[in-house]
Amino acid sequence: MPTKETVRNMRGLLSLLLPLCAIIAAGPAFAQATAVGQHRDWGTYSYSSDNGKVCYAMSVPKEKAPSSLNHGDIFFFVSQKPGQNIAYEPQFIASYDLQNGSKVTATVGNNSFTLFTQGKSAWLENAAEEPQMVDAMKSGAEMSIKAVSGRGNDTSYTFSLLGLTAALESIQSCD
Predict the structure, then answer these.
(1) Number of helices (H) and strands (E), helices first, in the chain?
(2) Is the pLDDT of residue 27 over 60?
(3) Separation of alpha carbons 13 and 7, rounded Å
């Protein structure tokens, strides 16, 4: 049976390794990303890919529900990918698989947007709505996200939109 000191040391090691594993599991973009700036509740980052430079604004939720669940790391991105002709692409990323075939709903003020899911991510069902969603986000104060986990749990998140406009302006010329 391990001693209390061994258990304490193992817990300390795990607390250091788990965030690193989360970053590695999230993919190479996180591992290679360079922080560009911070604009209130939104950070800006960039990295180089095979298709050119990618810049994005990212935030984490201010609220997660239900509180009884371990949500892990949750993110909302708005990406610029000039090499792929993608401008301001919104994306929701969870640390868990989303329910197959489920939809995620993003609500900003009176505007609601439907996102399709694939694995741990969700994108706008209708890419033509990306400018409307980004405009709503830029003029809003907060955005709510409703999703269903792969285990069937209803989840919701509230993201602050403070600083988003400045963050997007800072990545406008992503080259």
Answers:
(1) 4, 11
(2) no
(3) 10
Which CATH number is 34-170's, of 2.60.40.10, 2.40.50.140, 2.60.40.1880, 2.40.40.10? 2.60.40.1880
* H helical segments located in 100-154: 130-139
Burial class (CB in 10 A: 0-12, 13-18, 19+), 175: exposed
Q: How many CA atoms lie within 13 A of 101 on its CB side?
A: 1
Q: Who contacts 13 (Cβ-Cβ below 8 Å, separation ≥6)? A: none
In this structure, what token pair is assigned to residue 24? 């590695």
Helices (H), the chain: 4-26, 28-32, 130-139, 164-170
Cβ-based burial of 54 (10 A; exposed 0-12, middle 13-18, buried ≥19) = buried
Q: Which of 142, 147, 82 is nearest to 114 (CA)?
A: 147
Determine the 3-state secondary structure of 87 from DSSP.
strand
Q: 32-68: per-residue pLDDT in tens?
A: 899 999 999 999 999 998 888 999 999 999 999 999 9
Looking at residues 142-161, what average pLDDT do you find?
98
Closest CA to 93 of 78, 107, 83, 112: 78
